[in-house]
Amino acid sequence: QVQLQESGPGLVKPSQTLSLTCSVSGGPISSGTYYWSWIRQHPGKGLEWIGYIYYTGSTYYNPSLKTRVAISVDTSNNQFSLRLSSVTAADMAVYYCARLFEIINGRVRYFDLWGRGTLVTVSS
Amino acid sequence: DIQMTQSPSSVSASVGDRVTISCRASQDISNFLAWYQQKPGKAPNLLIYTASTLQSGVPSRFSGSGSGTDFTLTISSLQPEDIATYYCQQGDSFPSTFGQGTKLEIK
Lengths: 124, 107
Description:
A: seven-stranded mixed sheet; B: 11 strands
């Protein structure tokens, strides 16, 4: 079955760029039904959708992070990546990659598959 | 952004009890509502989508109801493995947003 796995540095210095990659195994990232997302969870807090990328490269970013976020896709290696620039302590969180099932008429369905998550700490 | 408010923030119940968790949206979201279960140290797991459709493999003791602004997640007979935090998520309007979570504990 399809699995997602996050990878990347667990420690980032303030003002630097956080970079994470999500490897998709067991199925093609180019499946037309799915949108590949990043979601984060601050320690002991709720969930925040960062954005998504479609296999064609089209993206959506949460307006709260839009000026600092970039999500890219590498279909040849079946993976997608997150870059978050100018990080501060407020960006310390567990970052999940997740598969979003369908967007219909501008409405999002649900996240049906998640990676295990990776904790990113921001500290000098 | 649409605000999703869950109640209660935490609940304590006994094995076998019926448990209900509420989720209220700040505006009409039709039935674009999903529920997730998150166990400590794990990723969220989809339980219910489109307000009332049970995800494949999820025990039938879980059910969802509601439409518009008010939604409910019900566990008909609480089991020890149901101890977790539960989140609702709306998909009617971008950006999709989550409730703050309801922590379920065993009494």
